[in-house]
Design brief:
89 residues, alpha+beta
Length: 89
């Protein structure tokens, strides 16, 4: 079904023009319009899938941008390494 209108003077019927829709944004333009979230620092994780000799979860440090976290023998060593990383940053 098309929308039509009638001319008030001559009585002819005409089709209505389609409403103009804005053109879609180019690819990835939306990313530039939204602010980026603040980058997170390194995080301390306890990985249950990596167990030590006593069966305790191993402490790991997840660094943003790296796929695999760094594993440490205990939480004390992981915290010391995390403090060293933060001191260098």
């Amino acid at each position: 079904m098309t929308s039509t209108t009638t001319c008030p003077t001559c009585g002819r019927r005409r089709r209505l023009r389609r409403a103009m829709t804005p053109a879609p944004l180019p690819l990835f333009t939306w990313a530039a319009q939204h602010p980026r979230p603040r980058a997170m620092g390194a995080r301390l994780l306890l990985r249950a899938d990596l167990r030590d000799a006593e069966g305790e979860p191993r402490a790991c440090i997840a660094i943003p941008g790296q796929r695999v976290p760094l594993a440490y023998p205990n939480i004390t060593a992981a915290l010391a390494a995390l403090r060293a990383m933060e001191a260098l940053a």
